[in-house]
Specification:
transmembrane; Rod shape-determining protein MreD; transmembrane helix; membrane; 178 residues; mainly alpha
């Protein structure tokens, strides 16, 4: 196995580990009182940051598996948010090449719109099928916090984890390989 393939699989394993860590910390009972502020959805921010940086590290089936496990473990309607995140990631994956030359503010704005659409569609679909859901206020706060934490996730992914945008040479090599 060459170094490019081993790096690819190690980054996929790292994404899976980070997703499991986020879910573990979310499920860990650190306080017996209810939270005042909802926790940002770090898993969505992490997934979208990695999709825009290196989409080969987070293939669609891996995103679907991770988000479905999150739905099941966090007792959300199974598959709904997973499907919406997969659709959002697919859109970002298709738009990633066009955003390569744009700045971070443009990327952040695009991700903010996609996260907002995911949250809104989730709420609308749950309302259509008459599923009881949280009040609108905490959901809006979680949405804003998820968008606000995105730059931190990108910074940590780039500097600490080495998930940077692919150069043109890497993109051509990946295209020739697959």
């Amino acid at each position: 196995m060459d170094s490019a393939t081993s790096q690819l699989w190690s980054k996929r394993g790292l994404y899976l580990f980070l997703a499991a860590l986020v879910l573990f910390l979310h499920l860990l009972p650190l306080d017996t009182q209810p939270d005042r502020w909802p926790f940002p959805d770090m898993l969505i921010a992490l997934t979208f940051a990695w999709v825009l940086r290196r989409p080969e590290y987070v293939p669609t089936l891996l995103i679907a598996f991770v988000m479905l496990m999150a739905d099941l473990l966090l007792q959300r309607p199974p598959g709904l948010l997973a499907a919406l995140v997969v659709l959002g990631a697919a859109y970002l994956h298709s738009a990633a090449f066009g955003m390569r030359d744009s700045g971070f503010v443009s990327e952040w704005t695009t991700v903010a719109v996609v996260i907002t659409v995911v949250f809104m569609l989730n709420r609308i679909i749950l309302a259509i099928v008459s599923v009881q859901q949280a009040a609108l206020g905490p959901v809006v706060i979680q949405l804003v916090l998820t968008i606000a934490v995105y730059p931190l996730i990108v910074l940590l992914s780039q500097n600490a984890l080495g998930v940077r945008r692919a150069s043109v040479a890497n993109t051509n090599a990946i295209g020739a390989r697959g």
